[in-house]
Amino acid sequence: MAAYNVGNYEFKLEQFFTKKMFDAITEVRVDSPEVILQEAKSRKKRKKITLDGKLTVLAADHPGRMVNKNGDDPIAMADRQQYLGRVLRVVTNPGVDGIMGTTDVIEDLIIVNYLVKKNGGKSFLDEKIILGSMNRGGLAGTKFEMDDTFTSFSSASLRLLNLDGAKTMMRLDVTNPDSAKTLLYCANMISELNKYEMPTFLEPLFVSSEGYKVQKTLAEMVKVIGVAAAMGDSSRNLWLKIPCGCDNYERIVKATTLPLLMLGGESKGDPTGTIGEFEAGMKAGKNVRGALVGRNILFPGKEDPLAAALAVNKVIHEGMSKDAAIDFLMKSRDIGIDVLAKYIK
C-alpha cells in the first residue's frame, strides 16, 4: 500500500459550497423560517440508532463554546462558510451515520436539505442520526467555564425538531465546585430524556485545575467513567463519549458495560494519527462502538474532510486496517464534489 501523501492536493471548499449557497441559507431564515420545523418534522428517521451496532458521527458544536482554534489560527472555525461547508461535505454523503451539533448548525443543515429537495434532489438527512448538543454555557477561557449551563437544545426542542438524541458534556475538576453543578445538570437532563426514551451521549472528562486540560491516565479515566455511567435515573439510554489514544485503553473501557464512542480531540492537521488511534481503540473492548469526532475530520490539514470521514467509517464499520483506510482515503478525494451544485445554483 502507498504511504500517505498529500502532495499538491488541497481541498477547495468553494468547489463544493459556494458563497451563493451560503447566502441562500440566510434568505430562507429571513423569508421562510417556518421551513425549519416543516423540514425537520418530515425527515425520515432510522428505526434504531445503529444499524450494525456501530456509529460514526461528526461533531459540530465547537463554536457554541467559543472554541474556534485550529492549528495556529485562533479563529479558524469562526468562518461559518468554511465550517458549515466542511460539515456539509461529510453529512451529504451516505457513508457517515450522522451529525451532532448546536441549534444553529443543525438548523442550517435542515435549510440546505430543504433547498436541495426544493430543486429536485433527495434528502441527505433522511435516516441520518442527528444529535443535539445541549450544554454549551461553559465558554472556553471564562471564569465560569466549569459551570456548564444548558444553553443550546432543550429536551422539548429535540423532540420538536424530530432529532434522534442528545449530547451533553461533564468536565470534572475535583477542586472546582462548579463541576458539581454541571454534574447535577447533566444527571437531571439524562433523567428528563429518559422520560421520552431519547438516547443521551454523555462526554465525561477528567480535567486539571489549571487550564482544564483533559487528563488521560488510567486512574483518572476509569474514575470519571464510573461517575458518568451512574448518572441519571437510568442508564438504559446512555452512551459515553471518551478520549482515545490513551495508555491502558483495554483497562479503561472495562470500567463500564455502556457503549462507548471515541472522541478525536484537537485537530492534528493530519488524519492518519486519528485513524490509527481509532483502529486500536476498536480492538480494545466489545463496548467500543465507534467514534464521535469533529476537528480531526473537519480540518484535516489540506485533506478532503469527506475522504478523512470515509476512512474513519471503514475502520469503524468494516474493521479496515489503518494502512488500508489511508489508501482508501487517498482514492476518495473530491468524490461527489458537485452534490450540492446540482441543486443549489
SSE sequence, one letter per element:
HHEHEHEHEHEHEHEHEHHH
CATH architecture: Alpha-Beta Barrel
The rounded distance between the terminal residues' Cα atoms is 40 Å
Q: What number of structural domains do the residues give?
A: 1
**What's the total count of β strands?**
8
Q: Unreliable segments (pLDDT under 50, ≥5 consecutive)?
A: none
Shape: globular
Determine and state the CATH class. Alpha Beta
Count every helix, treating DSSP H or I runs of 4 or more residues as helices: 12
Q: Name the CATH superfamily assignment.
A: Aldolase class I
Q: Please state the CA-atom Rg, rounded to the nearest Å.
A: 19 Å
- Going by helix content, strand content and strand pairing, the class is alpha/beta
Give the key terms.
eight-stranded parallel β-barrel, globular, alpha/beta, 345 residues, TIM Barrel
Please explain how this structure is put together.
This protein is of the alpha/beta class and 345 residues long. The chain has one domain: Alpha-Beta Barrel (TIM Barrel), CATH 3.20.20. The chain is built from twelve helices and eight strands. The chain has helices spanning 19-31, 34-42, 80-91, 103-118, 155-160, 177-194, 218-229, 249-253, 271-282, 295-298, 305-318, 322-331, and strands at residues 55-60, 98-101, 129-133, 165-172, 200-206, 238-243, 260-263, 288-293. An eight-stranded parallel beta barrel has the order 1-2-3-4-5-6-7-8, surrounded by six helices. Strand 5 (200-206), helix 7 (218-229) and strand 6 form a beta-alpha-beta unit. The longest helix has 18 residues, at 177-194. It is globular, with a radius of gyration of 19 Å. The mean pLDDT is 95.
